[in-house]
Amino acid sequence: MNLMIFGAGFSGLAIARHLAPVCLEMSGTTRSAARFDDLRRAGLHPLIYAGGEPGPDLLGRLSAATHLVASISPDQGGDPLLGLFAAGLKALAPDLCWVGYLSTVGVYGDHGGEWVDEDSECRPVSRRSVARLAAERGWARLCARDQVTLATLRLSGIYGPGRNALCNIDRGTARRLVKPGQVFNRIHVADIGAAAAMLAERQLGGIYNITDDEPAPPQDVVAYAAGLAGVAPPPETDFATADLSPMARSFYGENKRVANSRIKALGYSFSFPDYRAGLSALWEGNGWRG
User: Fold this and answer.
1) Quick one: which of 228, 290, 215 has its CA closest to 260?
2) pLDDT tens for residues 50-75?
3) What domains are there in the chain, each with its CATH number?
């Protein structure tokens, strides 16, 4: 396997670490050379890509890729990678056989707290989720045209080392916002890496919800983290009167419970099936700070 990761950030690096044992070569892009050491530690050859025309090193590495992970968020013009591959995937990556596109469960929009799966209607509310759904469809067309297997991974709220409720407790920024009936799914970044690696190694396509088993009220997660840290949780705050940015408030405009049975049916077993397992492992392993 020869792997190219566009957007080797938090999730991309986790995928690289899980695929390193089976890869002959791995490359990843970032917008800043300041992150090159992070990529190297994950086994990636670091490359700069900030949109537009790719440099010769990137083109050379891409030409040898057999597997590609797309983890770049759409901008105001859409997914920049769809423009890069406008002439077709095989024009730049003739040996490409599998693409993994990292999307979001936000594409489902608001379902009033009901359960959704991969066959549920997508009715995104926020502008960013609308853009994600458009990108999903763009990748589906692109991969179908070149007969490349596409796995679309719809990720829920990502946490892991350095990005979790324990960090918020430690910094004093944790809030227990309460909106009756509101729940969110979450996913530990290690499960993103492992699930994506399984799909890549087996060259499986389709749409998959990569999310934990237990959609839960956000205030419960904060309280559990405080309990692990041995401190009093912050007081509950009514969502209706809370001082929130428009983006923060927009997350609470979508309420759903996301099922993950499709990826489990392939044999995947989540290492962290709920927030308690994930936060406890971070605390007990002293890896929560990152």
Assistant:
1) 215
2) 998 999 999 999 999 999 999 999 99
3) 2-160+185-215+257-271 (3.40.50.720)
Which residues contact residue 37 at a Cβ distance below 8 angstroms, ignoring those fewer than 6 apart?
none
Quote the tokens at residue 112: 């009033």
Instruction: Please state, in angstroms and rounded to a whole number, the distance separating the CA atoms of residues 264 and 53.
Output: 39
Q: In 3D, which of 8, 64, 262, 3 has the Cα closest to residue 154?
A: 262
Backbone angles phi, psi at 150, to 5 degrees: -120, 125
User: Could you tell me which of 60, 59, 70, 88 has the C-alpha nearest to residue 11?
Assistant: 70
Q: What is the pTM of this model?
A: 0.97
- Residue 207 tokens, joined: 């749409």
Helix, coil or strand: residue 116: strand
Among residues 211, 75, 207, 195, which one has the least CA distance to residue 135?
75
Query: CB of 253 within 8 A of CB of 126?
Result: yes
Alpha-carbon torsion angle 218, 197, 65, 133, nearest 10: -40
Which of 220, 250, 251 shows the shortest CA–CA distance to 233? Answer: 220
Contact 7, 58 (CB under 8 A): no
Distance from C-alpha of 122 to C-alpha of 78, rounded to nearest angstrom: 18
43 φ/ψ sector (left φ>0, alpha ψ -120 to 50, else beta) = left
- Retrieve residue 230's tokens: 């041995």
CA-based nearest residue to 3, from 80, 61, 53: 61
User: Per-residue confidence at 131, pLDDT binned at 50, 70, 90?
Assistant: very high
Containing 3, the helix (H) or strand (E) segment is strand 2-6
pLDDT digits (tens, 9 = 90+) for 244-282: 999 889 989 999 999 999 999 999 999 999 999 999 999
C-alpha separations of 49 from 8, 28, 31, 289 in Å: 10, 9, 6, 28
